[in-house]
Automatic annotation (TrEMBL):
SCP domain ranges (all copies): 29-129
Domain of life of the organism encoding this protein: Bacteria
High-level lineage: Bacteria, Pseudomonadati, Verrucomicrobiota, Verrucomicrobiia, Verrucomicrobiales
InterPro entries reported in the protein's UniProt record: CAP_dom, CAP_sf
Pfam short name (any one): CAP
Protein name: SCP domain-containing protein
Signal peptide: none
C-alpha cells in the first residue's frame, strides 16, 4: 500500500488556472460553442490567460476607445485572432453579438476555425452597451 501512495504522490501535479467567466462572457461563449456544434466543430475551451487579456482588452476599449493590441507574447500563443464588438447588454447578449460577427465573412470563418484556447471578456459602458472581446489562440502549424 505504501508503494502505491508513493507512486501517486511522485507523479506530480500541475495546476491549470481556471478561466472565470461572468454572465455576459458565459452567454457569449455558450452562443459561440452552440454555433460551432451546429457546424460539427468542437467546443472552444476557455483559457485563464486569454480570458484575463480579453477582460483587459474589453475594458480598455470601453474606457479609452482603443483598438487591437497584440498580446501573443503575454500568453505564449503563437497566433491569436481578436473578435470585438458592441451591442446592448441583456439576456441574449451573446447571441446578438455572435449574429453581428456571423454577418462578416472573415469573422465568421474565424469562429469556425480550430484553436488551442479562447478568452472571453466584456465591459459595460454607461449607455448600457457592452463591448465583447474574444481572443482565439493557437500555435503555428496547427491548433
Amino acid at each position: 500500500m505504501l508503494s502505491l501512495a508513493f507512486l501517486l504522490t511522485s507523479c506530480g501535479t500541475k495546476t491549470v488556472p481556471v478561466a472565470r467567466l461572468g454572465a455576459s462572457e458565459q452567454s457569449l461563449l455558450t452562443a459561440i460553442n452552440q454555433y460551432r456544434k451546429e457546424l460539427g466543430k468542437s467546443a472552444l475551451e476557455p483559457s485563464a490567460d486569454l480570458t484575463d487579456l480579453a477582460h483587459k482588452d474589453a475594458l480598455r476599449r470601453v474606457t479609452t476607445g482603443g483598438g487591437y493590441v497584440d498580446h501573443r507574447q503575454e500568453t505564449g500563443y503563437e497566433r491569436m485572432l481578436t473578435l470585438a464588438g458592441k451591442v446592448q447588454g441583456g439576456e441574449d447578449y451573446g447571441s446578438r453579438l455572435l449574429e453581428h460577427w456571423k454577418k462578416n465573412p472573415v469573422q465568421r470563418a474565424w469562429l469556425e476555425g480550430n484553436y488551442a484556447g479562447v478568452g472571453v471578456g466584456t465591459a459595460a459602458a454607461t449607455s448600457g452597451a457592452e463591448t465583447g472581446v474574444v481572443l482565439l489562440g493557437g500555435f503555428s502549424g496547427g491548433i
